[in-house]
Specification:
This protein is globular. It has a domain of 204 residues: Orthogonal Bundle (MetI-like fold), CATH 1.10.3720. It is mainly α. InterPro entries: MetI-like, MetI-like_sf.
Length: 294
C-alpha cells in the first residue's frame, strides 16, 4: 500500500500556480464579487427579515429590508397552530428525517457503486450508458414529473415515503459526479491493491471511496438540501406520512392573517440547509472544479 500513501501525500502537498494580478485588478475583482454576493444574499436576508416583521410591515410597499418593530409573534402563532394539529409535530419531523437520511445514504451508495465500473473498467456499452446519464441531466424535473408519477403508481408506492426516496436514489447527477471524480484515480493504485490480495469490495470501500471523499460529501450536501425541503405533495396524501415542509405549508395556508406565519415557515425551512451549506461549501467547490461542471 506504499503507492497509495505516496499518492495521497502528493495530492496533499501539491501547490497551485499563483495567478499574477495587479493590486487594482485584485480590488476590482473583490468589488465585483462583493456586488454579486450582495445580490445573491438579498433574498436570504429578506426571508429572514420577514419572519420577524409584524403583519402591517409585511404589506408595506416598497418593502423594507429590515423590520422597524421586530417581533416573535409569527413564531408564536406558528407554535399555536402546530399545537392544535391532530398529528403530533414529532411525526412530521420523523418523516422528514427518515426520507432525508434514507434517500441521501441510498443515493450516495448506489451512485458510487455504479460509477466505479464506469470509471475504471472497460466493457461493451460503457460509453452508451454514460452518454445516457449525461443526456438525462438535460431534463428539468418538471419534464419527468409525469413519467415518474406513472412509474411510482405502477409500483404501488403512492402515499408512501418511498415515492420521494426512490426518485432521489435514482438521480443521475450523483453518478456523473462520482464517475468524473473516480477517473482521476490512477489505475496503478487499484492494480497494487489487487496484487496485495484485496477484493473488489475492499478496493472500493477502503481505497476508492476515501480518495473521492469530497465528491460524496458534496452529494450528501446536495441531497440533504433537496430532501429536507421536499414536500411530496404530488405523491403523499396521508397525514401520517407528510414531511415537515408539507405540514408547515399546510398549517400556514389560510387567510391573509397567516402571512406572518408563512414568513416564519419559510425562515425555518431555509435556516437548516443554508447553515449546512455554509459549513461545507468548500467541499462543493472542490468537487465541481475537479468534475469539470460549470
Amino acid at each position: 500500500m506504499q503507492v497509495i500513501k505516496n499518492y495521497l501525500l502528493k495530492r496533499k502537498y501539491s501547490k497551485k500556480k499563483r495567478i499574477n494580478r495587479s493590486v487594482a485588478g485584485d480590488i476590482s475583482l473583490f468589488i465585483l464579487l462583493a456586488l454579486f454576493g450582495i445580490f445573491s444574499a438579498y433574498p436570504l436576508v429578506m426571508t429572514a427579515s420577514n419572519a420577524f416583521k409584524p403583519l402591517d410591515e409585511l404589506f408595506v410597499f416598497p418593502p423594507t429590508l429590515f423590520p422597524r418593530n421586530a417581533t416573535f409573534d409569527n413564531f408564536r402563532d406558528l407554535s399555536e397552530l402546530i399545537g392544535n394539529s391532530w398529528i403530533p409535530f414529532s411525526r412530521y419531523f420523523f418523516n422528514t428525517i427518515f426520507v432525508t437520511l434514507l434517500g441521501t445514504v441510498g443515493h450516495v451508495l448506489i451512485a458510487s457503486m455504479a460509477a466505479y465500473p464506469l470509471a475504471k473498467y472497460k466493457f461493451p456499452g460503457r460509453n452508451l450508458v454514460f452518454g445516457l446519464v449525461v443526456y438525462s441531466l438535460m431534463f428539468a424535473p418538471q419534464v419527468t414529473a409525469t413519467p415518474n408519477y406513472m412509474m411510482i403508481s405502477w409500483l404501488g408506492l403512492i402515499d408512501t415515503p418511498w415515492a420521494i426516496i426512490l426518485p432521489a436514489i435514482a438521480s443521475s447527477l450523483g453518478l456523473y459526479l462520482m464517475k468524473q471524480f473516480m477517473e482521476q484515480i490512477p489505475f496503478e493504485l487499484i492494480e497494487s491493491a489487487k496484487i496485495d490480495g484485496a477484493s473488489e469490495y475492499r478496493i472500493f470501500f477502503q481505497i476508492v471511496m476515501p480518495l473521492v471523499k469530497p465528491a460524496w460529501l458534496t452529494l450528501i450536501i446536495l441531497l440533504f438540501q433537496r430532501l429536507w425541503t421536499a414536500d411530496g405533495g404530488t405523491y403523499i396524501f396521508s397525514e401520517e406520512w407528510k414531511p415537515l415542509s408539507y405540514a408547515l405549508k399546510q398549517i400556514a395556508q389560510g387567510s391573509i392573517e397567516r402571512q406572518g406565519t408563512i414568513a416564519a415557515v419559510s425562515f425555518i425551512m431555509m435556516i437548516v440547509p443554508v447553515t449546512f451549506f455554509i459549513f461545507s461549501q468548500s467541499r462543493i467547490v472542490e468537487t465541481f472544479s475537479h468534475s469539470g461542471m460549470k
